Amino acid sequence: MTKIIGLTGGIGSGKTTVANYIKSLGIPVYIADEEAKKIMKTKTVIESVQNTFGETVIKNSQIDREKLAQLVFNHPEQLQKLNDIVHPIVKQNFENWVKKQINHPFVVKEAAILFESGSYKYCDSIITVTAPLETRLQRVMDRDKTSRQSVLDRMKNQWPEDEKIANSDYVIHNISMEHTKNQVDNILKILKNQ
C-alpha cells in the first residue's frame, strides 16, 4: 500500500520549492492547487459554480477567478460553498492518481490547505514547511506584486503556523535552500526506512 505524505505550509513558506525538490528526486508529488485549477476548467465544475454563484462569475464560458475570489474572500459561508463543489472532485482525482503510483512506497501530496480542508486525515505522515513571518511576507509581496496587508489578510484564512507545526510529524525550517534540502533529505531517509 502506497503511503501518503502530506506536505503543507503557510503562504510564502516555500512548500512549492520543497515539493519541486522532492519531485526532482523521483518521488511522485501531487500539487493540489495545480490540479484544482485544472478541475475548475471542467464543464461540471463551471456549471456548478455558475448555478451556485450566478452568471457574474463566468466570462467566456470559463470561471472568472478574480470575480469568484472577490465573492468568497472574507465570506466563510461562500468559501464553504465553493469548497463543497471543488474538494470532493480534487479528492477523487488524487485517489485516482495514487492508484497509478503503485511502484512507489510513498507519494507526496502538497496542499496549502491540507489541515483546513480536512485532507490531512488521509495522510500517513505530515510535513510542514515554515519560515519567519517577515521572510514569508516578503516572498509573497515580491512574487504576487501585492501589499503587505493583502498578504496578511490571506494568512488569516489559513491555520496559524504553530497549529500546523503541532499537528505535523516533521517540520522544515525553510531559510536557506541548502539547509532546506538537507532537512528534506533527512526526512526522506526516515520515510524510506519505515
Give the arrangement of secondary structure elements.
Layout: E1 3-9, H1 15-24, E2 29-31, H2 32-39, H3 43-53, E3 58-59, E4 62-63, H4 65-72, H5 76-99, E5 106-110, E6 125-130, H6 133-144, H7 148-156, H8 161-166, E7 170-173, H9 177-192
Parallel strand pairs: 1-5, 1-6, 2-5, 6-7
Antiparallel strand pairs: 3-4
Helix pairs in contact: 2-5, 3-5
Q: Termini, distance in Å?
A: 13 Å
Structural category = alpha/beta
- Let me know the average pLDDT: 93
Beta-strand content: 5-15%
Poorly predicted parts: none
Shape: globular
Q: Largest sheet at a glance?
A: 5 strands, parallel
Number of helices: 9
Strands in their spatial order, largest beta sheet: 2-5-1-6-7
Reading off the top of the CATH hierarchy, the class of the largest domain is best stated as: Alpha Beta
Overall helicity: 40-55%
- Counting DSSP E segments of at least 2 residues, the number of strands comes to 7
> What is the CATH superfamily label of the largest domain?
P-loop containing nucleotide triphosphate hydrolases
Give the CATH architecture of the largest domain: 3-Layer(aba) Sandwich
The total number of structural domains is: 2
- The run of helices and strands is EHEHHEEHHEEHHHEH
From the alpha carbons, calculate the radius of gyration and give it in angstroms.
17 Å
From the 3D structure, determine the CATH topology of the largest domain.
Rossmann fold
